[in-house]
């Protein structure tokens, strides 16, 4: 079994329900949700919007490969109404966003997937919920704990 950390975010519709539904679907299709952070209200990052975000982090035990995991999370996003992923630096409002943050200690650089998530260390809205559930987890590239990375922001 692998231990996977994901970040969830939403800033449209019933945000609380969007996150809870995504977590339920991940539990059904990916594996056991070991821990789920509180929900954090945050301002948009990388773009302007009048809609605040609700963000969370989860740890899930899974037998899926990283590539299978990516496909399942993308399918969940589509089912919950996400029509397109952000590309480059063009961010926009969304019903749901599920980002794979870390998969055990793996480092992956493919056209489809980069792990650990390349921007996670720059995003308080990712690190704060993650530090709530995994403060002593070591980032496989930086060698720092999630708590240490949060303190650097």
Automatic annotation (TrEMBL):
Keywords: ATP-binding, Folate biosynthesis, Kinase, Nucleotide-binding, Transferase. GO terms for biological process: folic acid biosynthetic process; tetrahydrofolate biosynthetic process. Coiled coil: none annotated. SUPFAM superfamilies: 6-hydroxymethyl-7,8-dihydropterin pyrophosphokinase, HPPK. Pathway: Cofactor biosynthesis; tetrahydrofolate biosynthesis; 2-amino-4-hydroxy-6-hydroxymethyl-7,8-dihydropteridine diphosphate from 7,8-dihydroneopterin triphosphate: step 4/4. Transmembrane segments: none annotated. The keyword Transferase applies. Catalyzes the transfer of pyrophosphate from adenosine triphosphate (ATP) to 6-hydroxymethyl-7,8-dihydropterin, an enzymatic step in folate biosynthesis pathway. This is 2-amino-4-hydroxy-6-hydroxymethyldihydropteridine pyrophosphokinase. It comes from Phocaeicola coprophilus DSM 18228 = JCM 13818.
């Amino acid at each position: 079994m692998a231990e996977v950390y994901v970040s969830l975010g939403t800033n449209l519709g019933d945000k609380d329900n969007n996150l809870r539904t995504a977590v339920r679907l991940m539990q059904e299709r990916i594996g056991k949700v070991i821990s789920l952070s509180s929900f954090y209200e945050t301002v948009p990052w990388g773009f302007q919007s009048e809609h605040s975000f609700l963000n969370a982090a989860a740890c899930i035990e899974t037998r899926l490969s990283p590539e299978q995991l990516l496909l399942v999370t993308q399918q969940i996003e589509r089912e919950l109404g996400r029509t397109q992923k952000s590309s480059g630096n063009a961010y926009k409002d969304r019903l749901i966003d599920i980002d794979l943050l870390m998969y055990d200690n793996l480092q992956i650089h493919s056209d489809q997937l980069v792990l650990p998530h390349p921007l996670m260390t720059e995003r308080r809205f990712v690190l704060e919920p993650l530090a709530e559930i995994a403060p002593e987890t070591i980032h496989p590239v930086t060698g720092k704990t999630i708590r240490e990375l949060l303190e650097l922001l």
